Amino acid sequence: MSRRIVIDPVTRIEGHAKITIHLDDSGNVAEARFHVTEFRGFEKFCEGRLFWEMPGISARICGICPVSHILASSKAGDHILGVAVPPAGEKLRRLMNLAQIIQSHALGFFHLSSPDLLLGFDSPPASRNLFGLAARYPDVAKMGIRMRQFGQEVIGTLGGRKIHPSWGVPGGVRDPLDVAERDQIRARVPEQIAAIQSTLQLYKDSLVGLDDEVRAFGELPTLFLALVGPGGEWEHYDGHLRLVDANRQIVEAAIDPQRYGDYFGEAAEPWSYLKFPYYQPLGYPAGSYRVGPLARLNVCERIGSPLADRELAEFRTLGQGAVLGAFHYHYARLIEILASLEAIERLLDDPDILSSRCRAEASVNRLEGVGVSEAPRGTLFHHYRVDPTGRLEWVNLLIATGQNNLAMNQTVAAVARHYVRGGQDLTEGVLNRIEASIRAYDPCLSCSTHAIGQMPLLIQLIGPDGQIRDEARR
Amino acid sequence: MTRPKSVLVVGYGNPSRQDDGAGWLVAEAIGRRWRQRVHVVTGQQLVPEWALSLAESDLAFLIDAEIQKGTRSDDLKEVVPLQIAKVPGSFHGEGQVRTQQIAINPEISSRRRVTVRKLCPTFNATGDQDSSADLDVIAQSQTVSRVGGHAIGPESLVALAVMLSGRAPETHLVSIPAIWFGFGDGTSAVARAGIAEAIDLIDAHLVRWLTGSLSDE
């Protein structure tokens, strides 16, 4: 008899979602869907506001990724002003973005996912969390907490506060960095580099017992999108967009971010508030592409720092061309923390970073602007049209998690097909693996639907007659 | 020579939601009064990162806003705006916001406004060389199990400090009665009275505690 499985709410993610698994007559998985069930509508209610306000307003989309929105919004504003941001302004923005990547990746890995990886997917759910990790591996938990704290303190130092800093503005940043602040940050970098190197080793060791999960999460032959620098190097703030295929062959070498709309479309499905971006030349849904840490490492030629490049070379041995397994988002996240720490060291050693000239002044010189940066979860687009006074007439936000939507649905289906067979009852461990396949992407649903909500999870098992046959809820 | 005693003052809540920011206001006021003697942190919610700061402290105050227990729905109905101002473009529907003038049930304002509760670590790892079983119990306890990853409750914060560092300081949860949770930064008369009372209570405790601790050094 056919059934449908529903996971609602999905836990340990940023936002509110459910998963439905549709079974065929023989009890095997016909299809699976990841539903995002919250909606806020920032794109609409921002109309009529001044573009100057957008870094502050759009930062409120999320308490985890406010810096990403501040930067993409400020960059869209730079384009409307028609200014070049002073070198110190750009470098300070880069510094904050790197700190954001560190704190967000540390949260995603240590707080949310490492309980599965280190305590086990089948460990008791009541202690499969940060506290369980602290009980069993206090040093690892402490390391993760200190790493996130480091990223947040850099953000707090630059922006005056850790959450929603009103610092990035069209034209640059409000305040410079002083010598004491620079030295304080610089002094903490070596400890963090040692910590992430130790974590990378721990992660590689833990993979030995996770072969089945790595395989189950699937190897999706999608495209990958990310910003790259002029020489194809890893980039997180500026540059051009590059798209590669599953073999790491370049599909689009250098898309001008201002023209992203010529290449990427957004589809909608009636069962989710999260849109489905796709690469237009391949159409929907064939144009599925992925963004985020895995994509950035697949797209770039090199990272450009010695320790991270060494890790990248080892990482690349996991794939024939691109590394395709969704499970390896975790690995890529850790390598990016290392890359970010090395990049912070370089930036802090650059004398420009202390310049007080960090903001260009101008008024409206263009009526349209696109700001693109790499958020921790992937490429983030803010696109505004304004009237001559700078009032917003139209807003489009293309969020990293949305761009992974097609792939997340495919990954859920792959994991469900691996573990749900013959209509057997769901075990807690299977439910957790299905959830974990979504957590690998570290989705931020608050950002991607610009939605408010908690992080619960519901899995529903649905028969071909549409009736719910089984349900599991957290 | 022993190290100076350190005091952590944590104010948390959402300062853009009126009374919910009461903890911030108290923490910042204590910071201004005691300057170098206390370490003040503020945030929208308690986060695991603060467990490390907590473990390094000798005395801590966690200051939050909460609807006072025992407050009847009728009490809240007494809190009404007396004056309405038109503000074009306001988010408060119909282009209106309420001012800070309220009518208040005298019964509410006559109650003790602030509650202070001493938080104890759920277990003590100090001197216990084989505490892993206890730690597992804590990890599964009702208090700490509802953890999404980046926000935790006050008891959980204390427990996490002990789990990570083997100790937690004398920690007080200071709860300030709150009744307004709308958009904005103005506080109700109830919260303002509670804020003043909380500052006095913490101030008095600090005087006693620091005087005692200074004599130990």
Structure, described:
The complex is a heterodimer of chains A (474) and B (217). Helix content of chain A is 41%, strand content 19%. In chain A, a hairpin with a 5-residue loop joins strand 7 and strand 8. Chain A is of the alpha+beta class. Chain B has eight helices and nine strands. In chain B, the strands form three sheets. In chain B, strands 2-1-3-9-8 form a five-stranded mixed sheet. In chain B, helix 1 (22-34) runs parallel beside helix 8. The model of chain B is unreliable at 72-110 and 122-148 (pLDDT under 50). Classes of the chains: A alpha+beta (474), B alpha/beta (217). Chain A binds chain B through residues 11-12, 48, 63-64, 107, 111-112, 124, 126-127, 129-132, 134-136, 138, 141-142, 145-146, 148-149, 152, 162-163, 454-455, and chain B through 43-44, 48-49, 51-52, 89, 132, 135-136, 138-140, 144-145, 147-150, 156, 159-160, 163-165.
Overall geometric form of chain A = globular
How large is the count of helical segments of chain A? Answer: 15
Most extensive interface, residues per chain? A-B, 30 and 25 residues
Strand content of chain A: 15-25%
The tally of helices of chain B reads: 8
* Contiguous runs where pLDDT drops below 50 for at least 5 residues of chain B: 72-110, 122-148
What is Rg of chain A?
A: 22 Å
